[in-house]
Amino acid sequence: MSNPEINSPDASHAVIWKDAAEIDAVFVRMVEELTRRLAQQGIADPLMIGIHTGGVWVAERLHRGLGLTEPLGHLDISFYRDDFTRIGLHPQVRPSHLPVGVDDRHLILVDDVIQSGRTIRAALNVLFDYGRPASVMLATLVERSGRELPITPDVAGLQVQLEPAEQIKLAGPVPLRLLGQIPKKTPKTTATLSETRDVLSLLPTAPDGTSDTSLTSP
Amino acid sequence: MSAPHPQLDAQGNLKHFLTIDGLSRELLVEILDRAEGFLGVAQQAVKKVPLCRGKVIANLFFENSTRTRTTFELAAKRLSADVLNLNISTSATAKGETLLDTLRNLEAMHVDMFVVRHATSGAAHFIAAHANPHVSIINAGDGRHSHPTQGMLDMFTIRRHKPDFTRLRVAIVGDILHSRVARSQILALTTLGVPEIRVIAPRTLLPSHVEDAFGVRAFHDLREGIRDVDVVIMLRIQRERMNSALLPSEHEYFYLFGLTEKRLSVACPDAIVMHPGPINRGVEMDSQVADGSRSVILEQVSNGIAIRMAVMSMCLGTQNLNSQREYTA
């Protein structure tokens, strides 16, 4: 196993949960699911918008997979976060960039991991300050436990139950890998992560045959 | 053991913004990067972000200004803060209230930030030293000393056209002696690594020993001074200087130091022309230059809003961090 880079003072507890090949397989299924839903709702020309930073990486892949012609939008939600009064300004802010107007458009909002739902709440507020979309669909690579708001993705690549202290993050842009970070004193780690299941588990496993998704504690 | 930094908290975060002096290159770059994010707010249908909702910002202008006060007000409103504009000349100070009493009264109204402009050098530092620790002060110009948000908006404008500061030649033309804008610009340019800064002015409008004190090259001839420069910053000539024997007449100033397309031809072909405003057309530059393709003067105004949003949100964010620390301590 290569040494995953993760921005943590204690990187020894970071492990690769899904490698690039496994994520590629997830993207294939997400594109199929999105195609099915768009057809079902009669949406011909959706506008795709990724949330900085991991959401943009995921959106780039889905955008390519769906063969969308209009450029991808980028959204930074730093100015709409609900924790400014607690932790101050978010350290990294990148400009939002919406290439075309959102008025009366069907949007696909994309993020890497949904946990509390607060990021998506903020992103919806940003979008509505740009205009009035016809509809917004939410696609995330990972749907993990820990929701604090009534928000659910329409399309989720993977679903996982985690303890609140356990983290999952997307490393990228090339190669894309999902890294799990396990706090030191969590005896239940292996058990909870092994409950992981692919949301579309009826579909074939990843091309390279790797199907074991459980994390092993180092 | 050095004295506590007047602008930073114990963790090195920006608490007040009083001067460029003493701030690191990293911090200046952080301000520029943050402003880049705020620039996009003007493109939204709703030109507002909820970041500083519930904060109260008071504009304390002891000296007249339209552009600076308006852009500070707009910056605060785009951050969703509540803004008080205090017209000092017609209010309490005119009735004899001291500066500190005015300050205490505003603090009692739970104002979180003061934006201060004052004719006396050091006024913003004085207020910062005496204000309640929960309040942030932004200097919007004090005497001849400093105008740091103007300096930073100029750096932001330069960077958007010339991304690498370490390769630039920059000329500042005009009344260097009385200009707080020039002082802030020179400090910011130096901190950001600009290798060659030139000041161009008649001898009467240059401080003595300017080359040694500021690390710049002084010129008394415009054509010589702007040869091969990437950026030309024109400063405003204040009319009152004409009456104080420092300058013979507006006409003569334009004849010697006024910027025209012909004179600009010796600068780099892609040089940009800047001016903090308000322009005296036919004194500092002619209309052909002011309205020409190399002029970025109106961009400076838009950029000023983004820079002021960046600085205000950084200082208010630091307040939030510190009050949270007190809370949990």
Could you describe the 3D structure shown?
The complex is a heterodimer of chains A (218) and B (329). With 218 residues, chain A is an alpha/beta fold. Chain A has five helices and nine strands. The longest helix of chain A is centred in the N-terminal third of the chain and has 22 residues, at 20-41. The termini of chain A are close together. Residues 1-12 and 186-218 of chain A have low confidence and may be disordered. Chain B has 329 residues and is an alpha/beta fold. Helices cover 40% and strands 14% of the residues of chain B. Classes of the chains: A alpha/beta (218), B alpha/beta (329). At the A-B interface, α3 and α4 of A face α1 and α13 of B.
List the helices and strands and how they pair.
The complex is a heterodimer of chains A (218) and B (329).
Chain A: E1 14-18, H1 20-41, E2 47-51, H2 54-66, E3 73-75, H3 84-87, E4 106-114, H4 118-130, E5 135-144, E6 155-160, E7 167-171, E8 177-181, H5 189-193, E9 197-198
Parallel strand pairs in A: 2-3, 2-4, 4-5, 5-6
Antiparallel strand pairs in A: 1-8, 6-9, 7-8
Helix pairs in contact in A: 1-2
Chain B: H1 25-39, E1 56-61, H2 67-78, E2 82-87, H3 99-108, E3 113-118, H4 123-130, E4 136-142, H5 148-161, E5 169-173, H6 180-191, E6 196-200, H7 210-214, E7 217-219, H8 222-225, E8 231-234, H9 239-242, H10 250-257, H11 261-264, E9 272-274, H12 287-290, H13 297-328
Parallel strand pairs in B: 1-2, 1-3, 3-4, 5-6, 5-8, 6-7, 8-9
What is the structure about, briefly put?
The complex is a heterodimer of chains A (218) and B (329). Helix content of chain A is 26%, strand content 23%.
